[in-house]
Design brief:
Elements (H helix, E strand, L loop, with lengths): L1 H18 L27 E8 L5 E7 L1 H9 L9 E11 L1 H7 L5 E15 L10 E7 L2 E2 L3 H5 L1 H5 L15
Antiparallel strand pairs: 1-2, 2-3, 3-4, 4-5, 5-6
Length: 174
């Protein structure tokens, strides 16, 4: 019985140690310096809203994810998102896949390369973020909030042209 208890304790310890890296980017970490937003726990498990290839200066592949509140608003076709909606943008370098191109016999395959510009979030709270259309903005690089306040403060002016869609560019891809 003592042997079984020691094995159980060792297994629990091993699981805890193995789980520690997965905790990076949890909501209990640092908040961004402008809006006070913390990286939402479990955001990588949120549902997909859309994907895009941004050309030009951005030149990236991106996935836009939403928490349950955002997804429900998208699916209901709401023109305004309710408080608590969070939208995440993840982006990667737009990289040609030589391996895939060999299979296809021509250059045609592009894949997600290294991450670009961290994880970006829009958090809806109409009262708290009234000055910015009800949205707070944040960016996290390697789980740490972006310290460049000028970049974060530039988010809302960039989103102003999408005012008719509650300042959100991305449409739901059913």
């Amino acid at each position: 019985m003592k042997h079984l208890a020691l094995m159980s304790a060792a297994a629990l310890t091993a699981c805890a140690i193995a789980f520690m890296p997965l905790c990076a980017g949890r909501a209990d970490e640092e908040a961004d310096p402008v809006f006070g937003i913390k990286m939402p726990a479990g955001y990588r498990d949120w549902r997909l809203i859309s994907v895009a290839h941004e050309a030009g200066k951005l030149d990236d592949l991106r996935a836009v994810l939403g928490n349950d509140i955002a997804i429900e608003a998208y699916r209901a076709g709401k023109s305004e998102f309710p408080d608590g909606a969070i939208i995440a943008r993840l982006a990667w370098a737009y990289t040609s896949s030589e391996e895939n191109n060999k299979v296809f016999g021509q250059p045609q395959s592009f894949v997600a390369g290294p991450p670009k510009e961290g994880a970006q979030f829009m958090v809806k709270d109409a009262k708290k973020y009234a000055a910015t259309g009800g949205w707070g903005f944040a960016q996290f690089n390697d789980g740490k909030p972006l310290a460049d306040e000028a970049v974060i403060k530039a988010c809302f002016p960039c989103h102003e042209p999408a005012k008719a869609h509650d300042f959100v560019f991305t449409r739901y891809a059913p």
